[in-house]
Design brief:
Blueprint lengths: L4 H21 L3 E5 L4 E5 L9 E3 L8 H13 L6 E4 L8 H7 L2 E3 L4 E6 L14 E5 L5 H11 L7 H8 L8 E8 L2 E11 L2 E9 L8 H15 L4 E7 L3 H8 L3 E11 L1
Parallel strand pairs: 3-4, 10-11
Antiparallel strand pairs: 1-2, 2-3, 4-12, 5-12, 6-11, 6-12, 7-8, 8-9, 9-10
Helix pairs in contact: 4-5
């Protein structure tokens, strides 16, 4: 899929703009958007997904000062700086400049996948055995446990994730889902809407229940809610070159662009 750099910028910006209402109510989460750079920082979970800079856009004369600003921003909070570089970043030699400053390129890339005109998407059949509904604030820990199990992460992180999740439950344009198979919670995902954009995230199904239409039912529910919210473009991020990326193409997603993380040791 070939798209313009302006479209890359639009998609990347919308992803973070959609998160602003969540950041405003989430303890320890700060998100700053400016024309030069987007800065995301979490004092509760010091992982690159929540602690990084992206969409750096300046000229040859300003880039070194901007990189230094990013480094200082995270160093002040004793966090490891990570910069995600997409095709929309300028100048184009940003990766080389980061490497020269001691940053290391992360393995793999992040694929940004989209479906445009979701009103025209033909939805697959759903399974009557799988029920999907929005969660209550009291179910945030269950969602976190499902997510950790789905990605084989330590369950001791679940309470922290639940603490981050709870304040955003019920916010306008924010949907957190639980999927139940035979009344057992087995899957989860989130949808955040911003203007005509919808962002899917935190999707996972516990390993023992994969292949049971859980992911399909979650996706269909999210698309229906996105349509009701006026969304035209649905997007998500996943690891590039994986089976999941190929699987998502079956559902109509196309890889719009990829971006790579650089972390300062």
């Amino acid at each position: 899929m070939s798209i313009s750099l302006q479209r890359v910028t639009e998609l990347e910006w919308a992803n973070y703009a959609a998160t602003l209402p969540i950041a405003a109510v989430t303890p320890g989460l700060e998100l700053t958007l400016s024309d030069e750079v987007i800065l995301s920082r979490s004092t509760l979970l010091p992982m690159p997904d929540l602690n990084h800079a992206c969409l750096l856009r300046t000229d040859d004369q300003g880039i070194d000062a901007l990189i230094e600003r990013v480094i200082d921003h995270y160093a002040t909070h004793n966090l490891q700086p990570t910069v995600f570089v997409s095709p929309a970043c300028t100048p184009t030699d940003l990766p080389e400049r980061l490497l020269a400053r001691g940053f290391t390129r992360q393995e793999g890339a992040e694929a940004w996948m989209v479906i445009d005109d979701i009103w025209q998407v033909e939805l697959p059949k759903t399974s009557p055995r799988v029920q999907v509904r929005e969660i209550t604030a009291g179910e945030a820990l269950t969602v976190a446990q499902i997510f950790m199990t789905a990605f084989e992460l330590p369950l001791e992180f679940a309470p922290w994730m639940a603490e981050l999740l709870t304040p955003s439950v019920g916010l306008p344009g924010v949907y957190h889902y639980l999927a139940f198979l035979d009344n057992e919670p087995v899957g989860t995902c989130s949808l955040v809407c911003h203007q005509t954009f919808g962002v899917l995230g935190s999707a996972g199904v516990i390993p023992s229940r994969r292949g049971s239409s859980v992911a399909t039912n979650l996706a269909v529910r999210a698309v229906l809610d996105a349509r009701q919210s006026g969304v035209r473009t649905l997007m998500l991020q996943t690891a590039a070159g994986t089976m999941l990326e190929r699987f998502l193409r079956i559902y109509g997603f196309k890889t719009a662009f990829t971006r790579v993380g650089y972390t300062l040791s």
